[in-house]
Design goal:
128 residues; mainly beta
Length: 128
């Protein structure tokens, strides 16, 4: 059974930094790409960042480039989302997910339908 458990969310002030973690219980985690999505209140769940199976290739939505870094540790079966210069518009529930391929080459990372496994999410609230 595949499980993804996010942690690290909370309430912060604008301009602060935070790191989210996602621990994955899954054999062959190191064969699949993974990503972080977020869902602001009353809005859709959108792609934030993704990493290929070995973390060598990363993908970011334009709104977070330069502020957010995705990484993964395949030995620890854990993925991370390091966020800096946080803004109120970053407020959302953050989800990690496993892509059905090793990279976004054949399965576009931004498409939620390409992710068969999801975590329960962790809430991040950024106050101005």
């Amino acid at each position: 059974q595949v499980q993804l458990i996010e942690s690290g969310g909370g309430s912060v002030q604008a301009g602060e930094s935070l790191r989210l973690s996602c621990v994955v219980s899954m054999q062959s985690f190191d064969r699949f790409a993974m990503a972080w999505f977020r869902q602001p209140p009353g809005k859709n769940r959108d792609f934030v960042a993704g990493a290929s199976w070995n973390g060598a290739t990363t993908y970011y939505t334009e709104a977070v480039k330069g502020r957010i870094t995705i990484s993964r540790d395949n030995v620890k079966n854990t993925a991370y989302l390091q966020m800096t210069s946080l803004k109120p518009e970053d407020t959302a529930v953050y989800y990690c997910a496993i892509l059905r391929d090793s990279s976004g080459t054949t399965s576009p990372m931004h498409n939620r339908n390409n992710y068969p496994y999801w975590g329960q999410g962790t809430q991040l609230t950024v106050s101005s």
